[in-house]
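Notes continue from the previous slide.

Worked example: a multi-chain complex. Inputs as given:
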Amino acid sequence: MSQSYRCQNLVIGSGPGGSVTAWTLASHGRDVLLLEEGPCLPLDSCAPFSIDEMTQKYRNGGLNPALGQPRIPLVEGRCVGGGSEINSALYHRTPEEILDRWRAVYGVKHAGMEDMRPHFDACERALSVQLNPGTQPRIALKMKLGAEHLGWKTEEVPRAFKYETEPCGNGRILGKRQSMTETLIPSAVQAGVRLQGGVRGLKIARRKDHWNVTALQHGARVEIEADAVFVCGGAIQTPALLRRSGIQRNIGNSLSLHPMIKVVAVFDEDVNGGHPDVAAQQVNEYSPNLCMGCSISSLPYLALAMTDHPDAALDLRRTSPQMAVYYASIRGSATGRIRDLPWSTAPLLRYSLAPEDLRGLATGLRRLCQVLFAAGATSLYPSIPWFPPLRNADDLSRIPVTLPRSASLTSVHVFSSCPMGERSQQSAVDSFGQVHGQRNLVINDASVLCGPPGVNPQGTIMAFARRNTLHFVKGL
Amino acid sequence: MSGLLDKTTSALTYELAGLYSGPSSEIYPNYNDVVRFVTRQRDLMPGFLGFAVKATTLAFAASRLLVDGSFFHQRDSPRRRAQLEAWRRSNLGACRDLMKFYSALVVLAAYSRPDAGSRMLAR
């Protein structure tokens, strides 16, 4: 016999969207059940950006490429706290011009900067979003120096971090990432949320006056009855669940990414302390269409980035302190599809970059290399297999106008698979996440963004999730 | 088939680890932990993708069977490396993707070892 639960509000998925939703609902006296497919692990169950983290906290061990040309590996968290447990905790508010565009193109109501400000403020307080009070790492200072030489806009990005009060030996102030398991999940549980890890949602079905969710908990079938369901599984799992449930209108047809190309820079001085962390400096001269920043530069990730250059013959033991990885990412204009396969628990993802995206990435690569040469780099290795290293600014002319499809691209930001808006011919949910034509079924995660925000999306996801949840609570 | 897959995965991992590691103080360096990581991560892939990777790995194992009369894991290191190079530079995307897939896993695991900083080389 299958186990059954009953709750007033069911939240499926415990990433940034789901955590804000559960916390907000419980704070307003709702009886909330929060489901998460992955395990419940503390933030420090493994080192950040380590291979243990890949095994413990990444969906499919981090090996989940979107099929298309080029193949782009997509990384998703699969644990309580979702993506916030594995990301760099860089935090941005949604750029105003992006909010304006969503309003103009999709007819999203009440989503201007003034409407969103209280939600950003609340999320930033909950996550201790702040600038690093200590010295920035040298990897970041190099990026800043390069941008300033060119007269380009650059800034340190605030992070969801709590910092020590005293600096350590090298002047850096250590801190701890404020992921969902460090912040909103404990608050939500304290407010009465029942959290169940290891539960995979299989199907949602509307009954007379409630929703019925069928799930698997450690291999056993579970039935859950809820007055309202909030689907917060992320931009890939949310449309997969809805499509399996027969809810398919504008669902899973418009997946967007921030495609990213990386460059390994070699300097003639030490810049890399080998910390498994992401430096928070970004160059915003061409934001939001092009963002340049610092990537993970620990030894394993440096070595990984150098696999595109098997002839480089660099002695990493000797040179890794002088090397760092940087990236350029764009707002991809292409859209991908998410489809269920009847014989597979994982959905099929298809995404191919548009020709203009390949041109945009090539431009981004050229501009990133400009910054790095201006910062004093002596060699640059772009993530294009066998591409000869660039030794000086004159070599920039060798970067092709269009990036070859053999380039090694990645993306850690996915969204827009169920876009919001009042124009029901192009959107899946209304301005507040309610699925068109379905009562008390809300999507509250990265899926509802109307397109790539051009910045790290966690702040946007959380602010919209809070706004939508408050609208739901007050509107009922 | 699973025996051939395991032997090929192990031989491929050792060859790639050797390729990226440079000279070692050990005569027979042990990369069994890397093999275990590669196999475990491959098993975590979505079923249909894992199946495609395994099938391509078997094709890789047998790709010069008619010419050499041996599977990949039965060949000596120079001939294994020649095949790796041929697949890395292949015109077929599937061949390059397979090499990229295994290279990424091997490099991540090998460079994550506590002693990695003291003896790994990028090649």
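Summary box: Chain B has a mean pLDDT of 87. Chain B is about 70% helix and 0% strand.
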